[in-house]
Design brief:
The structure holds 3 protein chains of 3 kinds. Chain A is of the alpha/beta class. Helix content of chain A is 33%, strand content 23%. Chain C has helices at 2-28, 36-54, 57-81, 86-105, 130-134, 139-157, 159-169, 171-176, 181-207, 219-229, 234-256, 263-281, 291-298. The chains are: A alpha/beta, B mainly alpha, C mainly alpha.
């Protein structure tokens, strides 16, 4: 066996992330690590990359035992890793980024030589990228290629890829898979972390499934079926595809939200919004698909009053709110689920109770807050949390002590219990495990059926197709297609998202989305 | 129970640890003095004798603690939303200048009318001086630490200019100061010492700071910004307004300290009305972890050191800088010991 | 008059240039050091005392460099190892240096020394105008203006510069690339301190030729601001330093000519000019700022 991990155990305060894990990988194999979020895949791979030191267990390559105290030890042993968030310096050129990864760099780096090598790898493995471009100018897919080139030039023979497909559009995923297959042919060993069954079946030679920090089993692909894997992945839990009961919305009503050719200037390296028009009714979920960084964030933030529109109008219930502050938008019944709850939605050092009133300060703290009755507030919140079926320790502990999933649930609870007329959600299930995702979906559906208008910004196409009543696809800050789920499949959406294809069909230009 | 435990953790232990740290800093400066062939014990004795050896010494500790408390608040209030205001010195001088203008031009007014006006002028002067860096930060993203530091030089030079130029006392020959204020512009002194009504200003300001922070929606919003500005903005808290508000509130208090110095201690404006109160106040705020109650305690502690510094100068011939070294070392030790986590008041 | 202002600008700009170049190095590694103000003072004081004791300005310069580096080592320790707030630690260092130098330097306040003498470049100094302008200075002046391109070459064309900039942009990435980030940051801050110390030496040994308590007078803070104008680029720092030097030189010129303008207003100009510059440029330069500094300069807390 080429690579062997024996009895790897790693714990963090309060969490046993890896428990006696054994893993064997052949030379020239694509080996998938499959598991839900929190199953311990990333931890295990970071141990292999020397990023974490295991509490127990050994690693050996070609029979030689390795003592990996830091990533540089791992690199020296020929092990490289592409992290989920790329380890690139945006302000540096591709050449400079690659120079950083070179093991023996001259005092005056030979940039011509590096440029040449980038070209060679590009030609050989399809890893094409402009060596003199600054990384911030590159698309996510190109940045991923730079990461892989970095591993190759640093002499890595074992490549670890942490959820490499989560940032890619479907046809880009196909491109990545082709690159990986070429690499395998040249004898590279690839460890591929994912939680998507389809990808595993498409690319892996063998599959190891992890659950709750332990190995459930290792299968070779020809002997595995999606059902087996799903069962191993989730355990005894029933497997149910998401089906929701949809209540039809009242027709004829005025849209809750209307955008009339709204433009927002883009910041460095981003495209902003270029004349976007859309409308959204109560009791409706409008999905916004697109590769991250194509204006979806700007769209949501413009609606929330966090960014100013340079042109166009935003109407809420028919009233022009283009220049309204965020505070006014919140008071007018707009709510938001941000993409990173802990960083954007709560003050981690303040207590749960203090955080739960954040977006309803004026109601809970009237008259300047002079007579705030915290005890009554806590009772009210406890009641809500109970109805919600959540178990939260005490309301007086800082929010920062809770797990990410629980923070997300509290945030959903906080915003939905305000009964918003418009809910803007940014990537609401990013980083959540299957159970938490399902809960978030059910809550969004409940809010929809209760009459809320929901703008669902997501990069998960399955989620978008499952939940949305209508769907728009964003590319370079503009809407490049509008559909109902069922009218289009993920591959076509992907092509639209990346601008590889433009949608031929156009509705009347004034309202690109038929408001049926 | 757990609440109690946290209380003990965050509040009761801090003074104890601070005292320990102070002792450590004393030891460090002792070693420094030894290196230069001075007797550290004599220096310690002089410091304590200066501050506690007489009623005069004790009263002087209070006199120094007054501007220190106000200037510390000038740092602590913006610090609560994460801004570092090092402009206490300039803001103090601006307040003193504004109050001097009032005292010189409106000196004919009766005391009951004039003094409140001077207080207002002091507050306004300090606030105006803080408004500049606040606007620069809010509108142009200029780092407020650098701008407040630079403004200190500008405002102190402006004081130099007015006391030697337009506001110079015509009867003073070549001394750089303004004419003496009329009696109606003077703050009362108490108990035959130099302790003045500024003490009440400072205590009320600190109490108000505590109250607003803990018991009002403004304070709640300030705490949210201080903990996570991004979440605050997304929750509709107007960050820009709070940058202006907290900086100006802080500047106003430093300005009040300046007003009290000219109206109670000096009775006129002159260069050197402040022996670095703005900077020492900045230290006080950091040592107190920007906590209102801590500020009172730390202002007294540094007041002791400051009075002791005079004594060291008189009886040992050591420079006043000795206590500056002690203060800077305490600052380092506090920065180094990582209990800033307990910043939640 | 223009020529003499320029000549004075080059001379008066020298300490600012040293300090600015030092701060460019530190900030390129992601560390803001407001303690340069203190390191300049320590350099000025140590340089002056050493020169007064040994009569050797060269030893004085060496002592100044050493002292500046040692002072900045404290900042590096606080920021890199203890992870204290950068701004606060820099200010603490400034306070400490102010205290220590006024304590140690007091006996030397009115002492006369053997100053760093001007060294005319043979041949070149006889050229009309340019000779006096560029080639009749002391050795520290030449050093400063030669150092700027040298630092530029190191920063952008060597692997050390690459490592330094990588650490300042994204420490996590630099670490994952196997760079010893802490060592890099220590080295950068200490280098910055050495240069600030030399800045102090020029101030007390060549420019003022005396020691006065607090004689740096905010030059360190101006240097920190200049780094922003210079977009963290050593060559642009030269331009900024000469402009500020010229402002200092202009003050002397105006006073010498008896222009009826209060000297206090003239003294304000460098600080006001810095503020105006920050106002105009801070936002425009934002995208060139090393990413690691964003939190320090723009973050709240």
């Amino acid at each position: 066996m080429y690579l062997r991990l024996d009895g790897i155990t790693k714990s963090f305060p309060g969490v046993l992330a890896n428990c006696g894990i054994n893993l064997e990988v052949d030379r020239g194999e694509i080996h998938a690590l499959l598991g839900e979020n929190g199953a311990g895949k990333s931890t295990l791979m970071k141990v292999l990359y020397g990023f974490y030191q295991p509490d127990a267990g050994t690693i050996s390559v070609d029979g030689a035992r390795l003592d990996l105290r830091s990533p540089s030890d791992a690199i020296r042993a020929g092990i490289g890793m592409v992290f989920q968030s790329f380890m690139l310096i945006p302000a540096f050129s591709v050449v400079e980024n690659i120079a950083l990864a070179l093991p023996r760099l001259g005092v005056v780096p030979d940039t011509a030589d590096i440029r040449e090598r980038v070209r060679q790898y590009g030609a050989r493995y399809g890893l094409t990228v402009d060596p003199d471009a600054k990384v911030w100018q590159l698309s996510v897919g190109e940045q991923q290629r730079v990461e892989i080139i970095k591993l190759l030039v640093s002499g890595a023979r074992i490549l670890i890829l942490d959820e490499p497909t989560s940032v890619l559009a479907p046809h880009e995923i196909r491109g990545l898979f082709e690159i990986l297959q070429t690499l395998r042919r040249d004898g590279y060993t690839i460890l591929f972390i994912t939680h998507k069954l389809k990808e595993v079946m498409a690319i892996a030679d063998r599959i190891t499934v992890l659950r709750k920090g332990s190995v459930v089993g290792t299968l070779s692909r020809d002997k595995a079926t999606e059902q087996d894997l799903a069962y191993m992945l989730l355990g005894e839990r029933e497997l149910r595809t998401d089906t929701f009961s949809r209540r039809g919305r009242a027709d004829g009503a005025r849209p809750v939200l209307e955008l009339e050719s709204v433009s927002v200037p883009g910041e460095r390296g981003r495209c902003g919004l270029a004349g976007v028009s859309l409308s959204l009714h109560g009791g409706e979920i409008l999905g916004v698909a697109g590769v991250t960084g194509n204006g979806q964030t700007e769209l949501g933030e413009a609606i929330l009053g966090l960014r100013r529109a340079a042109h166009g109008r935003i109407l809420l219930d028919g009233v022009d709110v283009s220049h309204a502050t965020t505070a006014r938008m919140l008071e007018a019944g707009v709510a938001c689920i941000p993409e990173d709850p802990l960083r954007m939605g709560v003050a981690p050092g303040l207590t749960i109770a203090e955080n739960m009133i954040l977006t309803e300060r004026r109601r809970f703290m009237p008259r300047g807050g002079l007579f705030t009755d915290w005890r009554a507030i806590r009772r009210a919140i406890e009641e809500r949390i109970e109805n919600f079926g959540l178990t939260i320790p005490r309301l007086t502990v800082p929010v920062g002590t809770l797990s990410g999933g629980n923070v997300q649930r509290l945030l959903l609870l906080r915003e939905l219990s305000r009964r918003p007329k418009l809910l803007v959600t940014f990537y609401p299930t990013r980083g959540l495990d299957v159970a938490a995702t399902r809960m978030a979906h059910e809550l969004l559906m409940m809010a929809r059926n209760g009459g809320a208008a929901i703008l669902l910004i997501s990069e998960d196409l399955d989620e978008l197709l499952d939940l949305s009543d209508r769907l728009v696809v964003f590319s370079r800050g503009a809407i490049v297609g509008a559909f109902r789920p069922g009218e289009i499949d993920t591959v076509d959406i992907g092509l639209l998202m990346t601008g590889a294809k433009r949608h031929e069909w156009h509705d009347s230009p004034a309202s690109p989305i038929p408001a049926s | 129970m757990a609440r109690l435990a946290r209380l003990a953790d965050s509040r009761l232990l801090i003074p104890v640890r601070l005292l320990g740290l102070t002792a450590l800093a004393f030891v460090a400066v002792g070693i420094f003095l030894l290196l230069f062939g001075k007797n550290p014990l004599a220096a310690y004795r002089a410091i304590f004798a200066g501050a506690f050896g007489s009623t005069y010494g004790l009263s002087e500790v209070v006199v120094r603690a007054i501007p220190l408390m106000l200037c510390a608040a000038a740092t602590a209030i913006p610090a609560r939303i994460g801004l570092l205001n090092v402009g206490g010195e300039g803001q103090l001088h601006a307040g003193a200048m504004a109050a001097t203008w009032g005292a010189l031009t409106l000196g004919f007014l009766p005391r009951a009318a004039l003094l409140p006006g001077l207080v207002a002028l002091g507050l306004l002067g300090g606030a105006a001086a803080a408004l500049v860096p606040a606007v620069l930060r809010w509108a142009a993203g200029v780092n407020e630490t650098i701008s407040t530091l630079l403004l200190n030089y500008v405002i102190v030079l402006l004081v130099e200019y007015v006391v030697r130029g337009p506001w110079k006392d015509p009867l003073s020959y070549n001394w750089p100061f303004t004419p003496e204020f009329s009696d109606s512009a003077r703050l009362g002194l108490y108990w035959g010492t130099r302790i003045h009504a500024g003490l009440w200003f400072a205590l009320v300001a600190i109490a108000l700071f505590y109250f607003v922070l803990r018991r009002t929606r403004w304070g709640y919003e300030v705490r949210v910004i201080g903990d996570n500005p991004e979440a605050a903005v997304r929750a509709g808290i107007p960050l820009g307004r709070y940058i202006l508000l907290t900086m100006c509130a802080g500047g106003a208090l430093a300005g009040l300290a300046g007003m009290a110095e000219v109206c109670a201690i000096q009775s006129r404006l002159r260069p050197g009305i402040s022996t670095g109160f703005g900077y020492t106040g900045f230290l006080v705020s950091w040592l107190a972890l920007h906590h209102p109650l801590g500020i009172v305690a730390m202002a007294v502690l540094l007041g002791v050191l400051s009075v002791g510094g005079d004594q060291v100068q008189i009886s040992l011939g050591l420079p006043y800088a000795t206590v500056n070294i002690i203060m800077a070392l305490i600052f380092f030790v506090v920065l180094g010991s990582r209990f800033r986590a307990a910043r939640t008041a | 008059m223009l020529a003499s202002v320029l000549e004075g600008g080059i001379r008066a700009g020298t300490p600012i240039l040293y300090a600015t170049l030092g701060e460019v190095i530190a900030e390129r590694a992601g560390i803001v050091n407001l303690g340069v103000e203190g390191a300049i003072l320590v350099g000025a004081c140590a340089g002056f005392i050493t020169t007064a004791q040994t009569q050797s300005p060269l030893l004085g310069i060496a002592a100044a460099a050493l002292a500046g580096g040692a002072a900045s080592l404290v900042h590096a320790f606080m920021v890199v190892t203890v992870r204290a707030n950068q701004i606060a630690s820099g200010l603490a260092l400034m306070f400490l240096c102010l205290g220590v130098t006024s304590f140690v330097g007091r006996p030397y306040v009115a002492v006369k020394i053997n100053a760093v003498a001007p060294l005319a470049v043979p041949g070149l100094s006889d050229l009309p105008v340019v000779g006096r302008l560029l080639f009749s200075h002391d050795v520290l002046v030449y050093g400063a203006y030669l150092l700027a391109p040298l630092i530029w070459l190191i920063l952008f064309y060597t692997k050390w510069g690459l490592a330094l900039r990588a650490v300042g942009e994204r420490q996590a990435v630099a670490f994952a690339s196997g760079l010893p980030t802490a060592v890099v940051q220590y080295a950068a801050v200490v280098c910055g301190g050495v240069l600030a110390g030399v800045a102090g030496a020029h101030l007390s040994l060549a420019y003022a030729r005396s020691w006065v308590e607090g004689m740096s007078n905010g030059r360190g803070f101006i240097a920190v601001a200049l780094v922003i104008f210079a977009t963290w680029h050593p060559l642009r720092a030269v331009l900024g330093a000469v402009i500020f030097g010229a402002v200092f030189a202009l003050q002397l010129q105006i006073q010498a000519r008896g222009v009826a303008l209060s000297p206090y207003f003239l003294d304000m100009t460098p600080y006001l000019l810095t503020l105006v510059g920050l106002l105009l440029l801070a936002r425009a330069q934002r995208h060139t700022m090393p990413e690691g500094l964003k939190e320090v300069f723009e973050g709240l807390k």
